[in-house]
């Protein structure tokens, strides 16, 4: 279940640049990648609404409700700062399937951490905090 390696395809020049930069800042490649992921700021792309077919779908941040069954009991977790795709015209909301799959897995890590540390299960998680390594 736990993959130790995440493979990235780079050509020789790109690999040399990565190694040079890591050396320059006295970081291992692993540390540099983790720092880069933490520092990365992107823009969630807008998508075409499948109901009204216009390029009207924008991203807004609103809480997302996530339900997880823990030890046979339903646990509702509010995910705050979640960038939801939302259509301004017909009010439809969209979830990117890949993002949802990864988010689900990340939430499970948080639940397992709470159980392991014998802390109460989370009722609210900050999406921005979840993305930090
Ligand atoms: Zn629409």
Automatic annotation (TrEMBL):
<protein>
    <recommendedName>
        <fullName>YgiT-type zinc finger protein</fullName>
    </recommendedName>
</protein>
């Amino acid at each position: 279940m736990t993959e130790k390696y995440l493979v990235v395809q780079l050509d020789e020049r790109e690999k040399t640049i990565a190694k040079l930069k890591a050396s320059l800042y006295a970081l291992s490649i692993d540390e540099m990648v983790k720092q880069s992921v933490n520092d990365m700021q992107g823009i969630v792309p807008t998508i075409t609404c499948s109901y009204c077919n216009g390029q009207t779908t924008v991203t807004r941040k609103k809480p997302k409700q996530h339900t997880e069954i823990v030890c046979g009991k339903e646990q509702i977790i509010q995910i705050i700062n979640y960038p939801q795709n939302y259509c301004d015209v017909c009010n439809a909301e969209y979830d990117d399937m890949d993002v949802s799959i990864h988010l689900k897995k990340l939430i499970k890590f948080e639940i397992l951490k709470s159980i392991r540390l014998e802390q109460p299960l989370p009722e609210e998680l900050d999406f921005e905090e979840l993305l930090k390594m």
